[in-house]
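To whoever is on call:

I kicked off a structure prediction for a single chain this morning and the downstream step that reads the tokens threw a length-mismatch warning. I double-checked the sequence; it's 154 residues and nothing unusual in it as far as I can see. Pasting both halves so you can look.
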Amino acid sequence: MADGGETLALLKDPLAQELLTSRRMAQLAYTWTDGSPRVVPIWFHWDGQSVVLGSPMRAPKLTALRTNPRVAVTVEDSSDWPYKALLVRGEASVDELEDVSPEYERAAYRYFGDEAGEQWLKQLRGMPMARISVTPQWVGLLDFVTRFPSALSA
């Protein structure tokens, strides 16, 4: 796959848009402070330019992201063949907020629906939260029909 800016156009592909607006969990991969890899499932919101995540301020991943902001995010649909996956690599920036971020609110409504989303958010309102914004620097898209992992491509 190509590097850098050439791949960012994939974010506009209909399959990428489908995954970015889906109710699928993202997988956030980052490097812990001791150099070991970590992956966590997490809600996300695509704002058109960045993958935005929310996290409680006491989450250990925030320490790691401040030390090394390089991350990968995957959103996949592996429920039926052919599997689909959006792969994003970039840098995370962390903003400390006094309350739930607008992007986390949108994610809660998308994942839970209006009523359950509001109930979930009621429990969190007023809790300091981190807004993690991942700016894509490289994007890959797999559909296992026309786009395969590089190991399977000629």
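Update from on-call: the warning came from a stale cache, not from the record. Cleared it. Sanity check on the structure: The longest strand covers residues 84-97.
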